[in-house]
Amino acid sequence: MKALVLLSIGVGLGLWTIVVWLVPPRPSLAALISRLSAPPAPPSILTTGDSGWSVRLGKPFTGLLRSLGLPTRRVRQDLAVVGRETETHLAEKAVLTVTGLFLPGAVELSLALGGRPLPWEVPLVATLAVGAAGFLMPDAVVRAEAERRRAAFRHALSAYLNLVHILLAGGAGVEGALTDAAEVGEGWSFQQLRRALNMARLTRTSPWTTLGQLGDELDVGELAELAAALALAGTEGAKVRASLAAKAAAMRSREGADAEGRANAATERMALPGMLMAMGFVMFVFYPALIQINASL
User: How many CA atoms lie within 13 A of 174 on its CB side?
Assistant: First the structure.
C-alpha cells in the first residue's frame, strides 16, 4: 500500500511536470502592454557567456524552472557578476536535481539485486535530501563566487581611487583621471571599469552614470557612492580630491578589518580538528570502563 501511494505521487508529479512543460503559463495582457510601453533599459555592462553539457541535458527543464519564478533577482545578479548565463544555471539545477532524485533509487536497486535491500524509508529520505541538495547547490556556489569577486573588486576599487586622486592632484580633469586610472590596472575588476568608461564614451553619457550602473549591477555600494561624488564634481563643480582620499582610506581600513576577521575565523576553525581528536581519544579510553560499569549493574 505504501509503495502504491508513493508510486501514485511520483506519477502525478511527472504528469504535472510534462503538462507545464508542454503548455507553459502565458503572461497577462497587462504585463505584455507594460513590457511594450516601458522605456528600453540601458545595455548591461557585465557580459555573460557560458555553455556546456549541462545545458544540453537540462534544457528541457529550464522552461519549467522559469515558470516557477527562477532564478530570483538576487541569484540573477550573482550570475551577472560571475559571467554565467541564466540558461546554464537553470540547466545545472535541473541536472543536479534529477541526478539527486534518481541516485538513491539506483543505489537501493543495486542493494536489492544483491539481496540486501534497505527499508523503504531510507531511500525515500535520501532521495528528498539529495534532490534538495542538488537543487540548492548551484545557487550556493554562484553566491560564494560572486562574493569573492565583489571582495576583489572592492580591493581594486580602493587602488583605483588612489590613482584617480593622484591624477586629480596632478591637474587632470575628472573624466581624464577616471579613464587614465582605469588603463593602468589589470585583472577582471579593471576590465569592468574600462568597459563602463568605454560604454560611456560610445553612448555619449557621463562616466559617473555608467559607473553607477556598474555599481548597481555588481551590488557594490562603494562604487555607487563614488559615482554620486563624481556626479557632484562634474555637474556642480564640487571638490572631490579630499573625499576620494578619505573614501580610499576608509575602504583600506575596512578591508584590513575584514581580513583580520577572516584570519581569526580560520584560526578558530583550525582548533576544531584538535578538539574532535581529543573527544575521540577520551571516548576511546573511557568507553571500555563504562561498558564494564553497565555490565556490573
Answer: 19
Q: Residues 13-24: pLDDT tens digits?
A: 777 777 766 776
All structural domains of the chain with their residue ranges: 151-254
Interacting residues of 155 by C-beta distance below 8 A, sequence separation 6+: 189, 255
The CA-to-CA distance between both ends of the chain, in Å, stands at 45
The pTM of this model reads 0.71
Condensed to tens digits (0 to 9), the pLDDT of residues 204-241 reads: 888 888 988 998 888 888 888 888 877 776 555 456 77
Distances (CA, A) of 16 to 11, 13, 232: 9, 5, 56
**Three-class secondary structure of residue 85 per DSSP:** coil
The answer to whether 258 and 264 have CB atoms below 8 angstroms apart is no
Distance CA 35, CA 141 (A): 32
Count each helix (H run) and each strand (E run) in the chain, helices first.
Answer: 11, 0
CA separation, residue 103 to residues 109, 118, 121 (Å): 10, 14, 15
Is the peptide bond between 288 and the residue preceding it cis, with omega within 30 degrees of 0?
Answer: no
Element containing residue 158 per DSSP (H, E): helix 121-169
Q: H-type helices in 170-187, by residue range?
A: 174-184
